[in-house]
Amino acid sequence: MVQQSLLTSGANPEPKQPHDHPQRLRVLITVKAAPNPSQSYGETVCVAGLRIDPTHEGWVRLYPVNFRYLENWRRFSKYDIVEVDAKPNRADPRHESWRPNMDVLRRQSGEASACVQRARPLLATTAVRVGGAATTRSMLLPS
Question: Which residues pair with 31 in a beta bridge?
Fold first, then answer.
């Protein structure tokens, strides 16, 4: 069974890169999932957010993230901006899935509120795929 992308925009998604070279991603974190034990990666979480690079805006899913084992200065919260090198996740068919290099993850400070304001229209109403059909869902946004 192929898992469909949960987050869609009205346009066709950007295809995965044809190579496995890492790219530097700047992501406004909007979702942090509950920890999940993994035999391969230890305790991991999946995080998602909006890529805020000027030339590559859109949804991003980062997995695996070993959040519990991050140094304190690397830990991030919902609505923080992180910068990380990542490769397209070839094991996951969803175009927004990336494998982050946690050794270079860096939390940025001072920019999040401006980015949330810029992203508010996209965050406020987004298409979410439920049971194969697209439906519109609202997300809670910080004020």
Answer: 48
Mind giving me the DSSP string for 33-75?
PPPEEETTTEEEEEEEEEE--TTS-EEEEEEEE-GGGS-GGG-
- Count of residues for the chain? 143
pLDDT of residue 50: 92
Whether 35 and 42 have beta carbons less than 8 Å apart is answered as no
Q: Which domains does the chain have, with CATH numbers?
A: 21-132 (2.40.50)
The pTM for the full model equals 0.69
The first and second tokens of residue 52, run together, are: 């805020």
CA 137 to centroid of chain Cα atoms: 18
Pairing label, strands 81-88, 58-65? unpaired
CB atoms within 10 A of CB 133: 7
Q: From CA 91, how far away is CA 40, in angstroms rounded?
A: 14
Neighbouring residues of 65: CB distance < 8 A, sequence distance ≥ 6:
44, 45, 46, 47, 100, 102
Least confident of 16-20, 91-95, 129-133: 129-133
Determine contact, residues 84/65, Cβ cutoff 8 Å: no
